[in-house]
Amino acid sequence: MLPLTVTRSVHLDAPADVVWDAIGDARGLERWLAGEIDLDPQPGEAGTLVELDGTRRRIVVTDRHEGERLGFVWWHEDDPAEASAVLIEVGANEEGTTVTVTETADPVAVASIASARSALLSAATVDDVFGGSQPWEARLHRLAGIVSPVPVAVGA
User: Fold this and answer.
1) Which residues span the domain enclosing 13?
2) CATH number for the domain that contains residue 110
3) In this model, does residue 16 exceed pLDDT 70?
């Protein structure tokens, strides 16, 4: 089975460096990605985050290119089989900054739930497949509220 990959983007009316500040360090990530985070977002570093709904995740940083991208693998602390890889990319453009998040679920984890939840495999978010309560649309809207004074639309 192929891995399940979901991509979401948001266009922000903010400079790329302001957006990167909200993505490239633990304090920034804590404001929009999780309620609490214990992580040095450098390749090879591991940590823990607690989502706004109380869900605890383990996280390992896999990639970081200053001002451009942050990659990590994360999983629910009580179910490591639900691991997924996340890549957050920041790109400046004439209208501000675009943030694109791509999350890819482990194909073994997806296969284990496919028969019971087949309709979700083509649905909106990897978190939906795993029963999460914080889809990327909600996370990106929080990010937009932090860095952009202008309302934005999140899209696929």
Assistant:
1) 5-155
2) 3.30.530.20
3) yes
Per DSSP (E only), the strands in 5-147 are 5-12, 36-38, 46-50, 56-65, 69-76, 79-93, 96-105
- The predicted model scores a pTM of 0.77
Q: How far apart are CA 104 and CA 126, in angstroms?
A: 7
Token pair belonging to 73: 């693998």
Confidence of residue 107 (pLDDT cuts 50, 70, 90): low
- Residue 107, H or E segment: helix 107-114
Domain tally, the chain: 1
In the structure encoding, which two tokens stand for residue 121, read together?
A: 């495999």
Which position has the token pair 């004439």? 94
Tokens of residue 37, six digits: 């985070």
Query: pLDDT value at position 3?
Result: 60
The closest alpha carbon to 16, from 68, 62, 63, belongs to: 68
Type of residue at 121: L
Does residue 109 contact residue 87 with C-beta atoms inside 8 Å?
Answer: no
- Tell me the two tokens of residue 65: 């290119």
Tokens representing residue 10 in the block: 């948001």
